[in-house]
Amino acid sequence: MKIRALATTVALLFAGAAQADVITLTFEGVGNQASVNNFYNGGTDSLGNSGTNYGIQFGTNSLGLIDADANGGNGGNFANEPSPSTILFFLSGTAILNYMPGFTTGFSFYYTSSTAASVNVYDGLDATGNLLGSIDLTANFNNNCTGDPTGRFCHWDIGSLAFTGVAKSIDFGGTVDNTGYDNITFGSTNPSGVPEPTTIALLGLGLVGAAVTRRRRSNI
Ligand SMILES: [Ca+2]
Ligand SMILES: [Ca+2]
Ligand SMILES: [Ca+2]
User: Fold this and answer.
1) What is the CATH number of the domain that holds 69?
2) CA of 67 to the centre of ligand 2 (A)
3) DSSP secondary-structure letter at 214?
């Protein structure tokens, strides 16, 4: 949490036959354990980093997490993330995303989780209004994969949902420090990015070092 990421690469792709552009949030550039906040909304995360302005805002529980392998040993216990080396996770509540203009058609992402999780899409901001869709995710934690070079959360799967209506918020659920997301993609049910080849490793998703890890590893 002492080191800020400097890279600010965000992929902006275009959907071939789809009516809207596809936007993919890779979280690259968000600080380690920083609240994403307005990083993608013309502002900054809680550590002052800024990314492309997509008009997308995150609740304060939504945190960036940098792979410990890429952050001097301080950071996430994961590997093979679809876009190295930063992902989205949370240490309290859930990670809520707000997109005021709204998005249609579909929505997709990559996730890794040691527990079952669910993602809900709403037509109101802050996970309010009508529930447009819900995705139940199965635990996909896998100790047998290898990675980059370490990271116990090394297996990622795609979650996707097509829906009707205009969605304005998404509630990324799961278990604190045990569920991570990356390459959140709007306007398509196919997230961009391909997980890199891969590893083995250690404790909770969040912290590899320090005593903090110990108290959070109960779900692993
Ligand atoms: Ca990595
Ligand atoms: Ca790693
Ligand atoms: Ca990423």
Assistant:
1) 2.60.120
2) 5
3) H
Q: Do residues 63 and 46 make contact, with C-beta atoms less than 8 angstroms apart? A: no
Strand blocks (E) in 71-177: 86-89, 95-103, 106-113, 117-122, 131-137, 157-162, 167-172
Enter the tokens of residue 63.
Answer: 């945190």
Q: Which residues have C-beta under 5 Å from ligand 1, the single-atom ion?
A: 67, 84-85, 148
The SS3 assignment for 215 reads helix
What is the distance in A from the centroid of ligand 3 to the CA of 13?
15
Which residues make beta-bridge pairs with 65? 87
Residue 6 maps to a domain:
no
Residue 80 CA: which ligand is closest? 1
Cα(156) to ligand 2 centroid in Å equals 13
Q: Give the C-alpha separation, 79 to 96, whole Å.
A: 24
Task: Render pLDDT for 180-218 as a digit per residue (tens, 0 to 9).
Answer: 999 999 866 677 554 433 333 334 566 443 434 444 444
Per the confidence metrics, is the pTM higher than 0.85?
Answer: no
How many independent structural domains does the chain possess?
1
Ligand 1 center to 90 CA (angstroms): 18
Nearest ligand (C-alpha, residue 28): 3
Per the domain annotation, does 1 fall within a domain?
Answer: no
